[in-house]
Amino acid sequence: MSLDRHTQLAKRTRSAHGSNLAELGAIIAIMTVIVLFCINAAVVFMAGSINDRACRDAARAAAQASTSNSAQQQATAALKSYTSTNSFVGSPALSSSDFVYQDFAGNPPPDTSPFVSVTTTLTAKIPAPAFWGMQFGQSGNVSMKQTYSFPIVKTQLYLN
Fold first, then answer.
1. What does pTM read for this prediction?
2. Calpha distance 46→139 (Å, rounded)
3. Which of 57, 73, 106, 154 could bridge across to 158 with cysteines, CB 3.0–4.6 Å?
């Protein structure tokens, strides 16, 4: 009888070890997915933050210029300080087609002031682009676009 009891106790112990191992495997799989998602989210957040700051600084620099060409040059110069060497987050670029320098030829309508609008784009490469059917953009890249508008500080004087 004592041998039977010893055998039953040994079977119960082995069964408990097996279920512990199965639980550990499930937890590791779930934690891996959560960690990969957090890494992806951190890269996207970092890229968005960099693009936001770069766009704001470029618009602020462009608002100091008195001509459209000068404003574009100053915005581009401001973006050079955000050149990235990071393998996941690229450098912000000025979108020339979305650049607006509206000085109203020195005669703005009532309740309107001259302004400059700057748009920047930035591409980030996602570290874990696909797991369990989730995909980010084409080939694991995410593009971000940001626009800021500032009043023009130095307007050109137009004499009639």
1. 0.80
2. 19
3. 106
